[in-house]
Amino acid sequence: MGVVKRLAYVAAESTDLSAWRSYATDILGFEVGSDSNDRLLYLRADENHHRIAVRSGNRDDVGYVGWQVANSAALDAAAATLDAAGVAVARGTPEEVADRRVLDMLHFTCPHSGVRMELVVSPEINFTPRFRPTRDLAGFRTGDQGLGHVVLYAADLRAAADFYVKLLGFGISDFAMIPGVGPLAVFMHCNERHHSLAFMNIPGAPRRIQHIMFETLSIDDVGRSFDLCSDRDIITTTPGRHHNDHTYSFYFKTPSLWHMEFGWSPRTIDPANWTTEHYELRGDHAWGHRGLMEMV
Ligand SMILES: [Fe+2]
User: Fold this and answer.
1) Secondary structure of residue 171 in the 3-state scheme
2) Residues above pLDDT 90, as percent of the chain
3) What's the 151 CA to ligand 1 centre distance in angstroms?
4) Which of 43, 199, 228, 274 has the highest CB neighbour count under 10 A?
5) What is the pLDDT of residues 127-160, one digit of tens each?
6) CATH number (domain holding residue 106)
């Protein structure tokens, strides 16, 4: 297994924090942490202190992505590996460590997406009071499989995958291929979740992030969320089933115009024995998700 155990958190940079505050509770069903303020929202979706941080900024895009490693020894080893590969690595300052609610961290810039990646030790857990969804939801499956997944844009998918495989121990779950053209996306795992990180090659994409996925505990969470997002006119795709991880899901817009996916019942994988798959993006390969191929 690789040094990265799971996706810990994603931070958004936003020009409209008040929109995110109401979106978090009304649409996502997340709690807004009481230690939030008018420059920073901590959004809670399980027993972790937060899964999404939204920071006030000059643009609407991803801010940084946090990956959990086992302990500080693993962090030291990752720092040495990245440094030996010529990647500039910096340890988190005491202020950053406190801000992220972790015990230790390092960060580097992903050379393929331009996104700041953080490796973190021991994100704060609050098992009590329990997470209570702020609307009618069963909740989210996270735990050992982490937050869910994050999908970023990169121009060279094979090089991006190579970076995460060789330096951080990810495995490649599969490639989504456009017949006669090449790969549109690469999906990677760091635990039993089919993919925690994926890259898509969409020239001219307006942001560095395409979407985040949270796995819901109930099919009704997907259906009820679809109705709610339809009423708010923020759906991006119809419900459908994915070819690779078999998730039943749909996509909807965040206030920052990138997307959120709520998905139910994905297959899990055995990372120790996985062999990389590929599939071809043809019109007949799966059902639903109308709008997905146009989504940026
Ligand atoms: Fe997804």
Assistant:
1) strand
2) 97
3) 7
4) 199
5) 999 999 999 999 999 999 999 999 999 999 999 9
6) 3.10.180.10
Q: How far is the CA of 211 from the centre of ligand 1 (A)?
A: 7
Ligand 1 centroid – CA 94 distance (Å): 33
Q: How far apart are CA 155 and CA 91, in angstroms?
A: 28
Quick one: 22 exposed, middle or buried, by C-beta within 10 A (0-12, 13-18, 19+)?
A: exposed
Residue with tokens 């609307």: 135
pLDDT at site 206:
96
d(CA 213, ligand 1 centre) in Å: 5
Nearest in space to 254 (alpha carbons), one of 104, 117, 103, 150: 150
| Residues 87 and 152 grouped into a single domain | no
Judge whether 127 and 101 are in contact, CB under 8 Å: no
